[in-house]
Amino acid sequence: MKIAVEGCMHGDLDKVYETIKYIENTRNIKIDLLLCCGDFQAIRNEKDMESLNVPPKYKEMKSFWKYYSGQEVAPVPTIFIGGNHEASNYLLELYYGGWAAPNIYFLRFAGVVKFGNIRIGGLSGIYNARHYHLGHHERPPYNDNTIRSVYHVREYDVHKLMQVEEPIDIFLSHDWPLGITDYGNWKQLIRHKKHFEDEIQQETLGSKPAAQLLEKLKPPYWFSAHLHCKFTALVQHEEGGQATKFLALDKCLPGRKFLHIVDIESDPGPYEVQYDEEWLAITRKFNCVFPLTTDVETLEVHRLTCRIVVNGLIADWKRKERNLVNFLKLFHLTTPPIQFQTLLFLVLPIILRLYLSWNC
Ligand SMILES: [Mn+2]
After folding, report:
1. Architecture of domain 2-276 in CATH?
2. What whole-number distance in Å separates Cα of residue 88 and Cα of residue 48?
3. Where's it mainly located (predicted)?
4. What are the extents of the domains in the chain?
5. What global pTM score does this model have?
6. Cα of 7 to ligand 1 centre, how many Å?
């Protein structure tokens, strides 16, 4: 499977898809998937710009609206996570993930999906210690504070990802995992980006929860963006054991390193976005403690108990309906990419309960 990885999109879908077409033509290859590591700017209309936290000079419609309205269709299946420059009102509608436009899938605030047999996980937003323990309390219209805090990573979402035990092939985070620069040529990095030096020396460059997830999940590939430069690193988790190839990319501008093609061994397909059973079970398990207020609460997670519930749910699904994922796919892939899918996800537990008569 040939995967194009892109750094920050900043609404330049037209340019990125043109670049992909150019690569396909010149190298005579077919790109199967585009992954975008945040700052996607899924702006559907002028109203959405009220939820986008950027300086006034960057408030532009750019090109996502064409793909949302159907004027253009994404030529390559696209999966993206959120960053710190987003139409946060729209992404919140898709909290559980979904089609932001035909062929363009938002991976959720935190989530795991399958594409073919490749398992892709991601964490949207950026880390800020002040808001880490809060619930998702922000609602549009955002004020000067909530327009920023809405994209700050929450402990709740990280805890869910920490429960993933099945192997992840690729992980996406917008900001870099804390300490990742130790595993690459940071001296060369600060020659170009002098202002990173202090943060690297003080070991504050990057996201603490992303580093925890890297240590836990140990995926073969980890892609990030946010700092608008290319950087590679190799994390050897244990001697002779698993390793993670880290790659951060730039934003889409002429002469910048914003796109990279990775060739990953995979089954022949079909290559399409599918729900992930383990992730659905974790989402189900954690939904009853979904925090929605500003109350600071430390989430106590007993990993073993959680695992027993998650395994129980998966086993139950498998016992009652071998083809659960196909059943879900029926709903998923035929659903129009508007608010209806959010509504669908909200009623999905009820549909499933009726269908499988499961117990919480
Ligand atoms: Mn960013």
Report:
1. 4-Layer Sandwich (3.60)
2. 8
3. nucleus
4. 2-276
5. 0.90
6. 9
- For residue 159, the CA-to-ligand 1 centroid distance in Å is 23
d(CA 113, CA 105): 10
CA of 342 to the centre of ligand 1 (A): 25
Q: How far is the CA of 164 from the centre of ligand 1 (A)?
A: 26
Q: Which residues of 24-48 are buried (b: 16+ CB within 10 A; e: fewer)?
A: beeeeeebbbbbbbbbbbbbbeeeb
Instruction: Quote the ligand 1 centre to 310 CA distance (angstroms).
Output: 33
Provide the pLDDT for residue 253.
Answer: 87
CA-to-CA separations, 251 to 8, 79, 222, 258, in angstroms, rounded: 5, 16, 17, 5
Q: What is the pLDDT of residues 61-112, one digit of tens each?
A: 999 999 999 999 999 999 999 999 999 999 999 999 999 999 999 999 999 9
Nearby residues for ligand 1 (ion, Cβ within 5 Å): 39, 83-84, 226
